[in-house]
Design goal:
Layout: H1 17-38, H2 50-54, H3 56-62
Length: 67
């Protein structure tokens, strides 16, 4: 005789679509930011070496080669 009852209905999704798309968008934005900081040499950002020089020490701290 057990009185334990499940709170969640059996057919309820574990993760809603909104949460899933928010997580996917956040990952894409983080990957784009990592690309701009680490590997872009002015190809996308159109800043030339300004972004590279601005983030220079951080790039080395992350282990991204640049020289």
């Amino acid at each position: 005789m057990s009185n334990i009852q499940s709170v969640r209905p059996l057919n309820a999704p574990a993760v809603s679509a909104r949460v899933l798309w928010t997580a996917v968008g956040a990952v894409v934005l983080l990957l784009l930011l990592a690309y701009l900081v680490a590997f872009d040499q002015g190809a996308i950002s159109q800043s030339g070496m300004y972004l590279h020089e601005l983030m220079h020490d951080g790039r080395h701290l992350l282990g991204v080669p640049c020289h």
